From TrEMBL:
The chain crosses the membrane at residues 12-33, 121-143. It is a multi-pass membrane protein. It comes from Brachybacterium phenoliresistens. Zn(2+) binds at residues 435, 439, 511. This is ATP-dependent zinc metalloprotease FtsH. Keywords: ATP-binding, Cell membrane, Hydrolase, Membrane, Metal-binding, Metalloprotease, Nucleotide-binding, Protease, Transmembrane, Transmembrane helix, Zinc. The active site is at residue 436.
Length: 686
């Protein structure tokens, strides 16, 4: 079977090649057979031979070819060339009468005749059908290339790839940091292996499993692990492979894919990036006639048409579950929806352990310390950290990956490579040191901020310098005070530039963007404003799905929009005042920090802790209530107070790695300022 497939693919191209070769050979033979032994001479030479009586026989030919064929009494020599006794010359219509008269006057011994030239049947056939053959040949060639060669009439055939059981397998043991997803998918495998176990208790096999989560968290890796674990046919295809330029191809490929899986059941179908074909219907410019919508409709029909005893399960992956069609997500189609999120500390340690296999680590390397420094990173980020560390080690000529290489690798993945070629003046270095020092000082003086782990004035990526504020542990929630602290140390660089240099640069540009995003999230989505109350305004404003929301207007009035702007401005203004107060109260500490930065350029957590030992902490904020008329409860907590026992640090938080800044940033990028609290990330921004 394995050897028969290539032969079938070569059959049609082989036939076409033989047809082309036959046409070329026929044209060559026709050209050779068409030669009758007559040599071409000039018209003047032919008339001279007629007038001198050297012509034994003549033939006048008219029609599409106007010529005279002559048989001479002796060979004709043209210079050094012997033309022989058979020659011909051509003439134009205007000289026709003169040529005929010359032949009549010559009166050849064997006489003369005339005839009308006609094309042979072979020539007529070539002229009539050769253009059509060339056209269809070109069309056939284009179709074969577009369809992968040899499948010109198989537009609607599925492009799904059948997993090769002989290839190196990825198993569940290779998947780290997603234990819940592994457990769910392992059960799916058991459904196919031993369905009677579940039928005996009245359980039905799930028809579909949807894996969703941020990019790089291992959704496709989980599907590959299922393929490696399951001893059933596994068909994988990308969502974009269904739709082509030809109408109806997508729906036909869906039918073909599901029919193939049913014929080989029990089987698993995996569709990667299903959002390419499963987007919300009616959310585009093509309406119901959109080819993508027809493909989705066919997929919905096929998923509903599964017979309970056919044992075909559909697994799909996406990072945009919010834009999928509701009919696709309902029970009966995707019965199970598994979130694959960024790993926690235990998951990160497991991922680092898996990807460190085969890499020589120094004895003093502690992967748990690396895991604590990479809060919010996805599995792909962590794999990239170890790979970057290995590349840096090889580049430096070392054989062992040490902590220095890992530290640099974390910075490269978080902020980009260091720009050694960038030259900064003494004034710019001083301003960058004060800017980053302002961020670090304000973060150190606040009561709900995560600890400052690193400050540098070395340019990296698009940042002129950066400050790392990394939580000590994973957290699922953030309090209002923690968000206010983030706003305050975000404005630390701006406060320093305005207060000390009496001017501001483009440096705080990304700081203002991130602070505005946090403040707007607090006001619009988290109900942390007294004036606006506990109402969520404008859901999903961060990521607009054009097809669904292009025709929608604001979900609030103009007066509310003005009030939102005022509240956002008030929060940022208060944060700037708080940052200004911290810098005023700790100017000596700031100057000491700047001197150390100018000398060492980079300060680690221990060096920063020594400098911040004398920082004056800010007083605790007053208890906040959304309405002053409500009572404040002071009763003790049941079950004890975790914060009092130190089991849950108050400086931990959920942090996000924002996108790259858009403004020039000579003074540094600022501290770790995440976006909306619902979007976890590494927590490192310069």
């Amino acid at each position: 079977m394995a050897s028969s497939t290539p032969k079938k693919k070569r059959t049609l191209p082989g036939i076409a090649l033989w047809i082309i070769l036959a046409l070329v050979l026929g044209m060559v033979l026709f050209s050779l057979l068409g030669r009758d032994g007559y040599q071409q001479i000039d018209t003047e030479q032919g008339l001279t031979l007629l007038s001198e009586g050297k012509v034994e026989q003549a033939k006048i030919i008219d029609g599409n070819q106007q010529r005279v064929d002559l048989v001479l009494t002796e060979p004709f020599v043209d210079g050094d060339t012997d033309k022989g006794k058979q020659v011909r010359f051509s003439y134009v219509t205007a000289r026709g009468e003169a040529v005929v008269q010359a032949v009549e006057e010559a009166d050849p011994a064997k006489g003369y005749t005339d005839e009308i030239a006609t094309s042979s049947w072979w020539t007529t056939l070539l002229v009539s059908f050769l253009p059509l053959l060339l056209f269809f040949g070109l069309f056939w060639f284009l179709i074969m290339n577009a369809q992968g060669g040899g499948r010109a009439m198989q537009f609607g055939k599925s492009k799904a790839k059948l997993f090769n059981k002989e290839s190196p397998k990825v198993t569940f043991a290779d998947v780290a940091g997603a234990e819940e997803a592994v457990e769910e998918l392992d059960e799916i495998k058991q459904f196919l292996v031993d369905p009677q176990k579940y039928h005996a208790v009245g359980a039905k096999i799930p028809k579909g499993v949807l894996l969703y989560g941020p990019p790089g968290t291992g959704k496709t890796l989980l599907a590959r692990a299922v393929a490696g674990e399951a001893n059933v046919p596994f068909y994988s295809i990308s969502g974009s492979d269904f739709v082509e330029m030809f109408v109806g191809v997508g729906a036909s490929r869906v039918r073909d894919l599901f029919n193939t899986a049913k014929e080989n059941s029990p089987a698993i179908i995996f569709i990667d990036e299903i959002d390419a074909v499963g987007r919300h219907r009616g959310a585009g410019m093509g309406g119901g006639h959109d080819e993508r919508e027809q493909t989705l409709n066919q997929m919905l029909v096929e998923m509903d048409g599964f017979d309970e005893n056919q044992n075909v399960i559909l697994i799909a992956a996406t990072n945009r579950v919010d834009i999928l069609d509701p009919a696709l997500l309902r029970p009966g189609r995707f019965d199970r929806q598994i979130a694959v999120e960024a790993p926690d500390l235990k998951g990160r340690l497991h991922i680092l352990t898996v990807h460190s296999q085969g890499k020589p680590l120094a004895p003093d390397v502690d992967l748990e310390v690396v895991a604590r420094r990479t809060i919010g990173m996805s599995g792909a980020d962590l794999a990239n950290v170890l790979n970057e560390a290995a590349l840096l080690t090889a580049r430096s000529g070392n054989q062992i990956i040490d902590n220095r290489a890992l530290d640099e690798a974390i910075d490269r993945v978080s902020m980009g490579p260091q720009r050694y070629s960038k030259v900064m003046s003494d004034r710019e270095r001083q301003m960058t040191a004060y800017h980053e020092g302002g961020h670090a000082l304000v973060a150190a003086a606040l009561n709900n901020s995560a600890p400052v782990t690193k400050v540098t004035i070395l340019p990296r990526g698009r940042a002129g310098g950066y400050t790392m504020v990394v939580p000590t542990q994973d957290r699922n929630y953030q309090s209002r005070n923690e968000l206010l602290d983030r706003l305050a140390y975000a404005m630390g660089g701006y406060a320093v530039e305005e207060g000390i240099f009496h001017d501001v640069t483009t440096g705080p540009g990304s700081d203002l963007q991130n602070a505005t995003k946090i403040a707007r999230t607090m006001v619009m989505q988290l109900g942390m404003s007294e004036r606006l109350g506990q109402v969520s305004y404008g859901e999903g404003q961060d990521e607009v799905f054009v097809g669904m929301q292009s025709g929608q207007g604001p979900q609030f009035s103009d007066e509310t929009a003005q009030l939102i702007d005022e509240e956002v401005r008030r929060l940022i203004s208060r944060a700037l005042d708080e940052a200004w107060s911290v810098i005023s109260e700790n100017r000596e500490v700031l100057d000491r920090l700047v001197l150390e930065l100018l000398e060492k350029e980079t300060l680690n957590e221990h060096e920063l802790a020594e400098i911040f030992r004398d920082v004056r902490k800010r007083p605790l904020r007053e208890v906040w209530q959304s309405s002053q008329g409500r009572p404040v409860f002071h009763d003790p907590l049941v079950g004890g107070d975790p914060a009092a026992t130190g089991s849950e640090s108050s400086d931990a938080g959920e942090y996000v790695q924002p996108g790259p800044p858009e403004l020039p940033h000579p003074g540094g990028e600022g501290p770790s300022i995440p976006g909306a609290p619902r979007e976890p990330g590494p927590g490192e921004q310069g």
